[in-house]
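Response to reviewer comment R2.3. The reviewers asked that we include at least one raw input/output pair. We reproduce the pair for (+)-abscisic acid 8'-hydroxylase here without editing.
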Amino acid sequence: MAFFLALVCILILLAIASYVQYTRWQKGKGRFGGHGRSAPLKLPPGSMGWPYLGETLQLYSQDPSFFFASKQKRYGEIFKTHLLGCPCVMLASPEAARFVLVTQAHLFKPTYPRSKERMIGPSALFFHQGDYHLRLRKLVQGALGPDALRALVPEVEAAVRSTLASWDAGHVRSTFHAMKTLSFDVGIVTIFGGRLDERRKAELRKNYSVVEKGYNSFPNSLPGTLHYKAMQARRRLHGVLCDIMRERRGQAQAAGTGLLGCLMRSRGDDGAPLLSDEQIADNVIGVLFAAQDTTASALTWIVKYLHDHPKLLEAVRAEQAAVREATGGGRQPLAWAHTKSMALTHRVILESLRMASIISFTFREAVADVEYKGFLIPKGWKVMPLFRNIHHSPDYFQDPHKFDPSRFQVAPRPSTFLPFGHGVHACPGNELAKLEMLVLIHHLVTGYRMTHGWLLPLSMGLRL
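Raw output as returned:
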């Protein structure tokens, strides 16, 4: 009974606090008034929902795409709401996305829940902006640039072959889980440069899997909970990475290749190491995390779209058969030049990314009061450019719910196609992801057939 009364009191206090905060937001409507302006700025149209809860329950009780689309239809391309305890402004136009992510990016900082920052690592690239972010992004882009990708093609192909071989061995698995295995293996070779022994790889995979399961769990420190287990696994990941760095420093060829080697060799203007081991570990975990689910999801959707469009599948198979012929019937490995000859396959990838819109939106936070199209975006409010709404708008893509790769024979309008984000915080690994997709499709369509929801190699199949 005492617990129940305490809970009621807490809820009442939260409701009062939310009401006071909301009253302050309402007063914020008058900001930017005066100085020659005939009327003060208003908050964008929309609904803030219930005190404290906002519209979080509405969001999670239906398809999020429908939630955002219905809001846009009712209020227009800019509207306010209240989600996960935060007041938010949603933006659903290319101009707005460019405003937040490119032209006025200095007014909006990346924002993530503190629990997620602690789990990935507070020094990870995507939690920052400014000089630290620019220096670090330059290092990551260097490790994932064209020269590095050319050298990675054999490693990516080996990972694809290994994944497909597991299907031939009689393992019936879901497509998504198979794609997660593939993307993890590609992430490992990209980070460690192919110099990681199987024991270390197994340790990383085991602990990363625990972190991943707890990433979206309710944050608490109670032993046995998903969050607690994930934080423990995160500490073990850090330990494994520190062991690897110590081992590499003790070897004749210190650091080695791959992203890890690039980060370990980085130096400041004074010649001292640019990054501490703690910062390096945070960024390795961050890159591994970023390389996993999004790429695996995109690969899974590509397989589905090809399965659902048999004529398109045959056209892609014909293109890839010509590539296979150029490699001596598959006896020679794929090369960078081969991946650049896959025009139709590349358009299939782009259309899959548009249709699936794996990254539906991104989070930013206004660091000052901002005016946009006559509306006030108050300091501290979350700002969310809605990529999926842009990708699925008939204003920018004709018949947007039709899967039509031919639409990419002409480049889309600026800021209308944002599968990897936009601006200085766009995904630095987007070309690696597309390389992985091209190589997977090549071996998939030249070595497998799709029928009745199964991928069938020479023997067993993979359930779609």
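DSSP finds 17 helices and ten strands in the chain. Strands lie at 78-83, 86-91, 108-110, 364-366, 370-372, 375-377, 382-385, 449-451, 454-456, 462-463. Further pairs are available on request from the corresponding author.
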